[in-house]
Amino acid sequence: MEFRRINGLPPYVFAAINERKAAARAAGRDVVDFGFGNPDLPSPDIAVEKLAEAARNPKNHRYSASRGIPHLRLAIASRYKRMFDVDLDPETEVVTTIGAKEGLSHLMWVLIDRGDTAIVPSPSYPIHIYAPLFAGGQIVTVPMLDPSTIANESPGDSFFEGLLEAWQRAWPKPRVIICSFPHNPTTACVDLAFMERLVAFAREHDVVVVHDFAYADLAFDGYTPPSILQVEGAKECCVELYTLTKSFSMAGWRVGFMVGNKEIVAALTKIKSYLDYGTFQPIQIASIVAMNEATEYPAQLNAIYQSRRDTLIDGLDRIGWPVVPPRGSMFVWAPIPEAYRDMTSLEFSTFLVDEADVATSPGVGFGDGGDGHVRFSLIENELRTQQAIRQMKRALTRLA
Ligand SMILES: Cc1ncc(COP(=O)(O)O)c(C=O)c1O
User: Fold this and answer.
1) Which residue, by CA, sits nearest to atom 2 of ligand 1?
2) Cβ-contact 356, 316 below 8 angstroms
3) Measuring CA to CA, how many Å separate 189 from each of 167, 254, 332, 373?
4) Nearest CA to ligand 1 atom 7
5) More confident residue, 78 or 9
6) Separation CA 314–CA 306 (nearest Å)
């Protein structure tokens, strides 16, 4: 049978590693798995209890509101006020999504059509590349360099230079810029000054900025990631996706939001009203409780990720694989060690799973710009991370 839209999709690179991982496990080997950015830490107890309670009430079993119940939209507006001092009107500037991924995908349906283009970093979280393509458009890529390779320059500056260049050569002029900081997979982080430049550029060129803020709460060593909406005038042309997936370790619950420009919020709300009936209401109710009452939870999770990061970075350093510690996200973006540069990221990742029983994501899975790296997700605890280091030390015999 011939299908539409999926024909051009390349084979899922991560599937190759998943198969090797499954084979190793079937053979009784203990694979330490840094592959998938799927949080292992529990959701807040208070949210789980509220979910159970709300699920027992038959009133909550009916279809809910596609754009999110009013108190949930109010809770995200309050969170933005507390975190960023950003005022949001819960009626017009907030829409609930079924996770950031769903929000971004359907957002492209209202922003992009055949013949339109979107600017997307390379490498990128895969849906940033595919959502504009699924909507019928095309992408123009801008390199997102490994922050550790950019001497004397911030990742934001080099991305911005690439953006200016891409803008010059692109025709028709892109309608959308997709970006996401702290960035998955490169862990690049930016400051508010970068956001100000980006907003000024977007206002001048009449282009929409979609900022995926999935790692809003995952930042280390005192760094606080800025919201694009902190920039004055950002609501003229920008929207931001925020999600409970990483901040509250609620990945399976599928609760996210899009906030910002009223017209864009209304457009997404409209298309979603045709597509879905909203997240199960008990989940929405429990999400309100998470945001309003588990306010310390993101910081607690963050401390755990930071400790795991330190264990991994210290361990890699000890075995002769130095990597610059990330300032944010839940990843370590590791350049393939010099002695193994003859391998592609897929070959190196395959080698690690076969020979060291350590699963990582090959950089090429995030687009061509990701080759030369593997990504570790910080989803294994310190003990397991130390075990992985020992296994890699044994397998990586070419390291000094
Ligand atoms: C940049 C980015 N956006 C979105 C998501 C997914 O968010 P959600 O679970 O809210 O769909 C991820 C998950 O890894 C991500 O890295």
Assistant:
1) 214
2) no
3) 22, 25, 13, 18
4) 100
5) 78
6) 12
Residue 181 CA, ligand 1 centroid: distance in Å: 12
Measured CA to CA, the distance from residue 289 to residue 54 in angstroms comes to 11
Q: Mean pLDDT, the chain, as a whole number?
A: 96
Which residue's C-alpha comes closest to atom 14 of ligand 1?
37
Closest ligand 1 atom, residue 37 Cα: 14
Q: What is the pLDDT of residue 352?
A: 97
Tokens of 249: 């370790």
pLDDT of residue 234: 98
Give distance in angstroms: CA of 329 to centre of ligand 1.
11
**Measured in angstroms, how far is the CA atom of residue 398 from the centroid of ligand 1?**
35
Closest C-alpha residue for ligand 1 atom 13: 37
Q: Please report the pLDDT score of residue 269 as a whole number.
A: 98
Could you give the percent of the chain with pLDDT greater than 70? Answer: 100
Q: Which residues line ligand 1 (CB under 6 A)?
A: 37, 99-101, 125, 180, 184, 212, 214, 243, 245, 251, 256
Q: What is the pLDDT of residue 98?
A: 98
pLDDT digits 0-9 by tens, 139-189: 999 999 988 887 667 888 899 999 999 999 999 999 999 999 999 999 999
> Closest Cα to atom 12, ligand 1: which residue?
214
Domains of the chain and any CATH numbers: 13-42+297-395 (3.90.1150.10), 62-293 (3.40.640.10)
When comparing pLDDT for 14 and 199, which is higher? 199
- pTM comes to 0.97
CA 101 to ligand 1 center in whole angstroms: 6
Distance 244 CA to ligand 1 centre (A): 10
